[in-house]
Amino acid sequence: MALPRSAVIVGGNRTPFAKAGGPYAAASNTDLLTAALDGLVARFGLAGRRLDEVAGGAVLKHARDFNLTREAVLGSSLHPTTPAVDLQQACATGLESVIYVANKISLGQADVGIGCGVDSASDAPIAVSERLRRALLSANRARTLPQRLAAFASLRPADLAPVAPQVVEPRTGLSMGQHQARTAERWGITRHAQDELALASHTNLARAWADGFFDDLVTPYLGVTKDTILRADTSLEKLAALKPVFGDTMTAGNSTALTDGAASVLLAEAGWAESQGLPALARIVDAQVAAVDFPDGDDLLLAPTHAAARLLARQGMSLGDFELYELHEAFASTVLATLAAWESAEFCRDQLGLSAPLGSIERDRLNISGSSLAAGHPFAATGGRIVPILAKLLHSRGSGARGLISICAAGGQGVVAILEAV
Amino acid sequence: MAGVLERVFYSGAGQAVAGKLGLPEPEQLRRGRLLPSGSLVLASLAGSALAADTLAHLGQSWTEPLRDTEAEPPAYAERIGALIVDARGVRELAELEGLRAVLRPAVKGLAASGRVILLADAEVDGLEANAVRQALDGINRTVGKELRRGSTSNLIYVTRRVQAADLASTLSFLLEGRSAFVDGQTWTVTTPHRLVEPVEAPTPATPPRLVEPVETPTPANNPQTVPEEVALRPSRRAAATLPATSPLTDRIVVVTGAARGIGAQIATIAARDGATVVCVDVPASGESLAKLANQLHGTALQLDITAPDAGEKIAAHVASRYGEAAWIHGIVHNAGITRDKLLANTDAARWAQVLTVNLAAQLRINPILLDGRPGGLADDGRIVGVASTSGIAGNRGQANYAASKAGVVGLVRALAPELAGRGITVNAVAPGFIETEMTAKIPIVQREVFRRINSLSQGGQPVDVAETIAYFLDPASAGVTGQVIRVCGQNLVGQ
């Protein structure tokens, strides 16, 4: 489908990502997102400009952050009349924000906007227990002191303990890691293969930093100048020495760490960008979201396999048509299971309804500037990390070069998108 | 500890003691685009009309000087703001008496932050004329040292065909508070090598319109309001002669090392003068760089200027942010580092680091920006280097730094004639003791000494360096090239 207007990626900016409880421990989602926006504004000279819309979100959200993105815009150097919207689709939030803005641009509802995301695992909201919450609400409604006291009568000491957010699927009671451990086992993903992928992530990210690749993609924040989770000196031996934390094969080394950070992407209509003297790295060709029935046994994090099948069919493309692939590394085994699923004739036939497997991906085209295992994964910021990286890499390969992004998300969902260098 | 001592020193009681010790509280200098408070006095010693023409070009009026020719030296009834002496055409030793005669009442009658400005011929023939030419420099430097209360003296040599328009930016810089910390200096103004078409007089600055302008009745409908043509002339003339307060409007200025200190101030002043600023600094300084760029409505470029492709990256940034047709009007090579050690303790690494950042980087970047690529330096553009009095005079423990900063002086002088044909000027400032984070780290006693060993008895501010650079950047300063201006309050060290 030829779109009347083309949404292009002008560039991006993010904070360095930092391990939860580290240097950003005192920074809120609003602080982080504002910093990511301000760096983007500075890179492209947007101070005082009104953009058509900023779309963003966070996964771990305080109740007071109901207008998180708008608050960040108001705190940024953008013109305060720039509107904003909060979106949320778990770890796909960042990519969905980019798609939202791109769609508006394609439809003529906007000329320029920002897709962004942020998460702070350090500054996570802590709630009271459900029983205490109900008691507090009843007490608030009570008119007399005895009624007020009665509201608290049924409370037990345990109800007073605060409740921290958990990455647990409400319908299964299993954490994401526990779900993924089942997937890893089902697909026979070995410990060694996972450690190899983790090592490649660190090696690639370290090289990209050393090459200055992130000079125009990252702005330091609170004195942090590089991703703090990155271990440039890690090795297969070091990774092999770690104890499994989920199942028998998944360790802290081949699973993403809880991370703080924010990322943003500047998008514009192609002609508008040119008229403003702004660069265009790549256009957003198409995107697809999908979900799986994980409560009934589907692999929680393999929804992108379905999304990719539908997207490729719609675009008349095959999995091998891309110069580069960015598969978000929630866990090393997620990426490996996704690759295995696309290679599996059985899975592609039974689950995706295809007559032949989608095929293989050459590893030297996969996550070539590192991914979430090395950079970290502030949930909603990952899409905004990946999109500008891929756009920049494709742009350097010349007009027409295509890349595929795949991001899995909690709730058995997944989003894929195609970028093409302009 | 040093902080406490300093606070005591600058407290009321501390200053009373310091005053007795001969360390009085320094004068608050007049800064910014502010003219002297008193009247401008103009003396022409040998009939030259250049200074008068230039003042007229600037829309300034002047009064006649008092001359010490009677038994009693005359005194100005009110303090004067500046004495401008046009000494063009002065060739004989005896003519210097005319200078003495106007200086004597003026040095006593200058208001605070007053100015003595001397104009003289750059090129003279004959032994006596050359002696006289140099004698003026000696007089200028001495007047600078004798003036009190923040007043300064500077000497401008002008070449033969210099006209009022060529000199206007220099005279207005010297008169205004922008030159607060420039004292005892001598530099040359020439005729611009490439005379551009005179630009349409800029309209007086108006605040940006927030609403659509209300339509005014046409003269045909409303004959009474038709202004007489005569009535329009004065405002037009005023507009043509007033110095432009935003001379850099619609021009791109690149400042390296912009994240803090003097660099941030250079970018700020360039933006004040209307420039679109590209703030460059190392990626690690990106946070403060972004803040500054946003504050100034410019752009931030995170770049290590010592990278082999730094010049290409600067041009690419300009072309990609401001369009393929965009050119850099001016680049200010401000980024610099110190790695101080006595030579006895200086290893190859310390040596190389300083020379690479302070000198090699701009040697590599300039040719790239000059090769005509999109986003490069415009013809009629500006290159500004930052030298240092340490480079001119040498400084104990700074052999590497002095080498790099003296190197900047050499580079500027060699590059200026090379680029003259393209209308590009190349100049440098040489800051003396400037109050920055860097100089704040010097131990208090030494710092107080460094601060005060100049004619203004105080350290300069980053803005003083920035103002001098903005004067170089001004399109009207096309006749100023190959010059090194010290911003040092006439520091005792060096030439």
Explained architecture:
The complex is a heterodimer of chains A (422) and B (495). Helix content of chain A is 36%, strand content 17%. Chain A has helices at 29-44, 68-75, 93-106, 130-141, 145-153, 176-186, 191-210, 236-240, 270-275, 303-315, 332-343, 345-350, 372-375, 382-397, and strands at residues 7-14, 18-19, 53-56, 84-86, 112-120, 244-246, 250-251, 259-269, 282-291, 324-327, 402-409, 413-421. In chain A, strand 3 (53-56), helix 2 (68-75) and strand 4 form a beta-alpha-beta unit. In chain A, helix 1 packs across helix 2, helix 3 crosses helix 14 (382-397) and helix 4 runs antiparallel to helix 5. Chain B is of the alpha/beta class and 495 residues long. Chain B has two domains: 27-189, NAD(P)-binding Rossmann-like Domain (Rossmann fold, 3-Layer(aba) Sandwich), CATH 3.40.50; 252-487, NAD(P)-binding Rossmann-like Domain (Rossmann fold), CATH 3.40.50. Chain B has 15 helices and twelve strands. In chain B, strands 8-7-6-9-10-11-12 form a seven-stranded parallel sheet, with helices on both faces. Chain B has a five-stranded parallel sheet with strand order 1-2-3-4-5, with helices on both faces. The interface between A and B is medium-sized, with 25 and 29 residues.
For the record, the CATH class of the largest domain in chain A is Alpha Beta
Outline of chain B, from the CA principal axes? Answer: globular
Most extensive interface, chain pair and sizes: A-B, 25 and 29 residues
What is the multimeric organization of the chains shown?
A: heterodimer
Brief write-up:
Chain A has 422 residues and is of the alpha+beta class. Chain A has helices at residues 29-44, 68-75, 93-106, 130-141, 145-153, 176-186, 191-210, 236-240, 270-275, 303-315, 332-343, 345-350, 372-375, 382-397; strands at 7-14, 18-19, 53-56, 84-86, 112-120, 244-246, 250-251, 259-269, 282-291, 324-327, 402-409, 413-421.
